[in-house]
Specification:
single chain, 520 residues, mainly beta, Porin, 3 domains, eight-stranded antiparallel beta barrel, 24 strands, 4% helix, disordered N terminus
């Protein structure tokens, strides 16, 4: 296998889990309004509501080299200032011959309503990524667009002119793109009211019902499966995150992101949308079900063709407590445009967050934080030498006490000639207020990384990080930090520096004892 094939393979690790994370809800239905909740309980803290939308877009790009590719973008945008919206987004290849090309970033959008059903839209996406052996240089990508939006029932449809440029002009294309958006509501408790009990039912935040940490084994079928030719190892190990949303009592959907952590496929990653159905048994303390989905996958020298991946599994669930359950599943995964086929088995631990049927009894909101920033450290290259790499970093924190939090995070290179390098991390940390407007803290993370020609061995990576944080205004903060990153089986071991901007808010706990419906 060639050096290029092995190293510009992206590993969009559960990256899409924090994109797995952040980009789910995807089909959030508008919950009970804060005005209704306040009417039910005059003492309730009024929740803020902002317009939001979960969106998908598809665009067929054609680069000056003559190569064609189909890109899919998924995003979750929140409107806080009139016609402006902002949020996380991920772009990935789904047709062509670049399976594994992913870009992680953020999008700023603008919309002006002409009539009840017609609006003009414009915006820009920027981020970092690469993979699929594409010549992306540093990995920086930007995508400006403008066009029209129509209201069609409960959804909106877009047609826009867009321009895609990757690696500071190495790849560029201008074309038409089509999109579909599902409007929803982003509901939250302001940071300065987190110490006041809230009486409100239904979902808040991005509308997750449950979050799962997933460990997966793939057993490749057949003698091929590598882009460079030949057979894959007998076993591939992945770690990832899945975010669930119930629709009714027995069905729902999810977003899942995962990346290779062992098995000789460092850099492989997948980002999937899934639907599921379950049948409860044993008084709903257990259930059996089926899960079917598709999405984008590639990297790690795995032959996924243009990047389309299909997956089907049967699962069994055992509820350990009112807010936690253990899942086991098995099934089949295939890349119809490539040579990759595999039997799959996985185990996951699910933690219930919110829900449509949650309690209206007074409770304190759960502190939640979103962060976006950049980090830099010196990284050894497989081709030899050491060079600084800069990554865009997305983080989601959910606090389990007033100072302790759990976190899912994603990284993707945008400077340093490492386009295609990315990492997905899970961990825990502490954030402690110590003066008016100041916080100090630290976190420990484990995950998977790969791609971009950076030496990462099998893909397992660990990171420790300390930070000093200053509040700005209305829940927003700025943070500086330093730490250390190390891959467990390779030469990467370096100090890092970090600068990030964040937003803190509260979500309702969404769970009462005995409420189990709607989540597997």
């Amino acid at each position: 296998m060639t050096r290029t094939n092995v190293h510009v393979m992206v590993r969009r690790v559960m990256t899409r889990c924090s994109i797995a994370h952040m980009l789910v809800t995807l089909v959030s239905l508008a919950p009970l309004s804060a005005r209704q909740a306040a009417a039910q309980d005059p003492a309730a803290v009024p929740m803020r509501e902002y317009r939001a939308a979960a969106s998908f877009a598809f665009e067929p790009v054609r680069f000056p080299t003559g190569e064609s590719m189909g890109l899919v973008e998924s995003r979750f945008l929140v409107s806080r200032f009139d016609d402006w919206s902002i949020g996380p987004a991920v772009v990935g290849a789904i047709t062509g011959n670049r399976g594994g090309l992913f870009v992680l970033g953020a999008e700023l959008g603008w919309q002006h309503q002409f009539t009840v059903r017609l609006a003009t839209v414009a915006g820009i996406f920027a981020g970092g990524g690469g993979g699929g052996s594409a010549p992306v240089g540093s990995g920086f990508m930007w995508r400006p667009f403008a066009g029209l939006r129509w209201q069609v029932g409960d959804v909106t449809a877009d047609i826009v002119a867009s321009h895609v440029e990757i690696g500071h002009g190495l790849l560029s294309s201008t074309q038409l793109a089509i999109g579909l958006s599902v409007p929803t509501t982003f509901r939250l408790v302001p940071e300065d009211r987190l110490d006041v009990p809230v009486s409100v039912s239904g979902r808040s935040g991005m509308g997750f019902d449950a979050l799962e940490v997933v460990a997966t084994i793939y057993r490749p079928i057949g003698v091929t499966g590598r882009r460079s030719g030949g057979a894959l190892p007998t076993t591939l190990a992945l770690v990832g995150v899945r975010a669930e949303r119930g629709v009714g009592e027995h069905a729902g959907f999810a977003i899942e992101g995962a990346g290779a952590a062992a098995g000789g496929a460092a850099g492989y990653a997948e980002y999937l949308a899934l639907g599921w159905w379950r049948a409860p048994i044993a008084d709903d303390r257990a259930s059996l079900g089926v899960r079917i989905g598709s999405g984008m996958a590639g990297g790690g020298d795995i032959d996924t063709g243009g990047g389309l991946l299909l997956k089907g599994t049967l699962f069994a669930t055992l509820r350990l407590a009112d807010n936690a359950c253990l899942n086991a599943e098995g099934g089949y995964v295939a890349a119809p445009e490539g040579g990759f086929r595999a039997a799959t088995a996985s185990a996951s631990l699910a933690w219930r967050l919110d829900g449509a049927g949650s309690s209206t009894s007074p409770q304190h909101a759960v502190r939640t934080e979103w962060w976006i920033g950049a980090e830099q450290y010196d990284a050894p290259r497989v081709a030899g030498g050491v060079r600084a790499v800069s990554n865009v970093a997305l983080r989601v924190y959910r606090f389990v006490t007033s100072t302790v939090y759990l976190t899912g995070q994603a990284r993707s290179a945008f400077l340093g000639g490492a386009g295609g390098y990315s990492a997905g991390l899970l961990g825990a940390g502490v954030s402690v207020p110590f003066a008016d407007g100041w916080r100090v803290g630290g976190e420990a993370l484990l995950g998977a990384a790969g791609g971009g020609g950076i030496s990462v061995g099998g893909g397992a990576v660990a990171q420790g990080h300390g930070f000093l944080e200053r509040a700005l205004v209305d829940g927003m903060s700025v943070r500086v930090g330093t730490g250390y990153v190390r891959t467990l089986r390779a030469a990467l071991a370096a100090p890092l520096i970090d600068l990030s901007f964040g937003y803190a808010f509260g979500v309702t706990r969404g769970v009462t004892r005995g409420v189990t419906r709607g989540v597997p």
